[in-house]
Design goal:
This protein is about 35% helix and about 25% strand. α8 runs parallel beside α12, α12 runs antiparallel to α13 and α14 packs parallel to α19. The strands form four sheets. It has an eight-stranded antiparallel beta sheet, with helices on one face. A six-stranded antiparallel beta sheet has the order 5-6-7-8-12-13, covered by helices on one side. The protein folds into three domains: about 240 residues, Glutamine Phosphoribosylpyrophosphate, subunit 1, domain 1, CATH 3.60.20; about 190 residues, Rossmann fold, CATH 3.40.50.10490; about 150 residues, Rossmann fold. The protein is globular. A hairpin with a 1-residue loop joins β2 and β3. It has 19 helices and 24 strands. The protein binds 5-amino-5-deoxy-1-O-phosphono-D-mannitol (M6R).
């Protein structure tokens, strides 16, 4: 949450920062701001989107080759111009952008007020700016980096910060704890950002800051120390990131583009891993550690939101085919429970961003208990990717829409490959079934393309239900998590209240909701549960509910019974989630659009949840 960009070098900083903020806008879009240090300090900030800031500041004095910028997801204080970052300290010596939460800000603020400090905003960040200034003023021996280090030593909480000092005009200080920051190394120029996307077009040499690192950057130097003031050695990484342009192409929204990309991204996910001869599945990131993983006594899969739904599908697959006990946990619960786990357990953390605060905390807890920790992650070089023992990238490409789509299908693809690989290694699956499933998985992209051709039909259905107040999503087996995911998509972008349920649970409560106003989306392609889910549909119909059924092509029974149907190609039940989720994403997209909602940037949400 919140995106930070900084630049120091010889180019104009303003356009680099604005473009970088546009890349990072998925992290928060309540307000945006920029500070430029060029002789004098110029700070421009605006409630609203980066484009509003760009318009506002374009006419102003925005020259200079040193600056920082921020796009905000509000934590302390409502989104307005005053609370927007950058924040300037009372005497104007320090300007700071911040991602994270200073938990003890009230106490620090009280002390600063006693020292005569006054505040213009409700933010925790302004407290930090003033605290840095306070230390700076204690002695002429104290430079800006020391002032930052002293201030951070008093802070409880999470931060990624970039700081400018008006009295040290060739320097930027950046630091992190809990909130990601990466520094790109150029030729006498440096780029700072919350993730690598804004940096990738300028350099492939990067340094990922670790917790409590403080980087001191001038045009000619880059040094690292930590909050304890101990020098830290630089670890330069090669950034292997192809980002293309931040461009919706022919699509109206990033979400729609990402939905349509899925046949290709699923292929990318299994490219080079799923062999055409259907023999070994190769997961390069796990090779060294696989002999240990295959002997695990138990697997625990952890994630949040959509990643948690993918985890449920992984559980079903691993238990069915690899016959290994699996538990699925919400990261936000796991991290605060007293879970029993040890060195014979394998913990898999799933995260698109690789920066979700709760998932990272769960990772640390699992590590501290001696478990083997693996990551399934989309963002290359993210904290999750760096902190796990080993992992698998999903290779879905950058996902900009806040509602996750292609990242989900990529996660499920990785989990399917992992489950089959485990099943084979543990000798729980015969060659014929294994090869059949590999083939089924390899056919998903082509079948997915056929579903996308159904867009107009889905749009017509969306038109019928766009004014609903509530919606129910039902599924069984592998399709229960798909029902949960469909409901999440609808609620997050259309603001219609939607519940996902295991269809068998309907009679235990949710059936009370059914009346002639309730759309009930039933994920009902032909599988072992088909007869049962047909009965569930009958029960809904008997109470006048409106059934929208996702069915296997040619299903005449449900064509008669349901109010609306969306056909998907026949596939094996274990890979059916990869297909059946696509129409649910499209349905949510069209309904949200028809309701006039901001599909790519839904209210109150941010893509990367880096605070708990
Ligand atoms: O980056 P992560 O996968 O860790 O993010 C987890 C959730 O915040 C995320 O899936 C969220 O639920 C999405 N907005 C769902 O579309």
């Amino acid at each position: 949450m919140c995106g930070i960009v900084g630049y120091i070098g010889k180019k104009e900083a303003f356009p680099i920062i604005i473009k970088g903020l546009k890349w990072l806008e998925y992290r928060g879009y309540d307000s945006a701001g920029v500070a430029l240090l060029n002789g004098s300090l110029e700070v421009y900030k605006k409630k609203g989107k980066v484009i509003d800031l760009e318009e506002f500041a374009s006419e102003k004095n925005n020259g200079g080759s040193l600056g920082i910028g921020h796009t905000r997801w509000a934590t302390h204080g409502e989104p307005n111009d005053e609370n927007a970052h950058p924040h300037v300290s009372m005497e104007g010596m320090f300007t700071l952008v911040h991602n994270g939460i200073i938990e003890n800000y009230a106490e620090l603020k009280e002390d600063l007020i006693k020292h005569g400090y006054r505040f213009n905003s409700e933010t925790d960040t302004e407290v930090l700016a003033n605290l840095v200034e306070y230390f700076y003023k204690q002695s002429s021996e104290i430079n800006s980096e020391t002032a930052v280090q002293l201030a951070l030593s008093k802070v409880v909480g999470a931060y990624g910060i970039a700081v400018l000092c008006s009295e040290e005009k060739d320097k930027m200080v950046v630091a992190r704890k809990g909130s990601p920051l990466v520094v790109g190394l150029g030729n006498k120029e440096y780029f700072v950002a919350s993730d690598a996307a804004p940096i990738a077009e300028f350099t492939s040499q990067v340094v990922y800051l670790n917790d409590e690192d403080i980087a001191v950057i001038t045009r000619n130097s880059f040094t690292l120390k930590n909050v304890q003031n101990t020098p830290v050695s630089l670890k330069i990484s090669n950034l292997d990131l192809e980002i293309g342009e931040l461009d919706k192409g022919e699509y109206e929204h990033f979400m729609l583009k990402e939905i349509y990309e899925q046949p290709k991204t699923i292929e990318e996910t299994f490219r080079g891993r799923l062999r055409h001869d259907q023999s070994e599945i190769v997961l390069g990131g796990l090779i060294n550690i696989f002999p240990k993983i295959e002997k695990a006594e138990r697997i625990i899969i952890i994630g949040c939101g959509t990643s948690w739904h993918a985890a449920l599908i992984g559980e079903y697959m691993l238990e069915e085919y690899a016959q290994i006990p699996v538990e699925v946990e919400y990261a936000s619960e796991f991290r605060y429970r007293k879970p029993v786990l040890g060195e014979n357990d394998v913990v898999i953390l799933i995260s698109q961003s690789g920066e979700t605060a709760d998932t990272l905390a769960a990772l640390e807890l699992a590590k501290s208990k001696g478990a083997t920790v693996l990551g399934i992650c989309n963002v290359v070089g993210s904290t999750l990717a760096r902190e796990t023992d080993a992992g698998v990238y999903t290779h879905a490409g950058i996902e900009i829409g806040v509602a996750s789509t292609k990242a989900f299908t990529a996660q499920v693809t990785v989990l399917t490959m992992f489950a089959l690989k485990m099943a084979k290694a543990r000798k729980k699956i015969d060659t014929e079934e294994y090869q059949m499933l590999v083939k089924e998985l390899s056919e998903i992209p082509e079948k997915g393309r056929l579903i996308l051709e159904n867009n107009e039909n889905i749009k017509t259905i969306a038109e019928k239900y766009k004014d609903a107040i509530n919606a129910l999503y039902l599924g069984r087996g592998y399709l229960f998590p798909v029902a949960l995911e469909g409901a999440l998509k609808l609620k997050e972008i259309s603001y219609i209240h939607a519940e996902g349920y295991a269809a068998g649970e309907m009679k235990h409560g949710p059936i009370a909701l059914v009346d002639d106003n309730l759309p009930v989306v039933v994920v009902a392609p032909k599988d072992d549960y088909y007869e049962k889910i047909v009965s569930n549909i009958q029960e809904v119909k008997a109470r006048k509910g409106n059934v929208i059924a996702i069915v296997t092509e040619g299903d005449v029974v449900l064509k008669e019974m349901a109010n609306d149907i969306i056909e998907i190609p026949d596939s094996h039940p274990a890979v059916a989630p990869l297909l059946s989720v696509i129409p649910l994403q499209m349905l949510a997209y069209h309904i949200a659009l028809m309701r006039g909602c901001n599909v790519d940037q839904p209210r109150n949400l941010a893509k990367s949840v880096t605070v708990e």
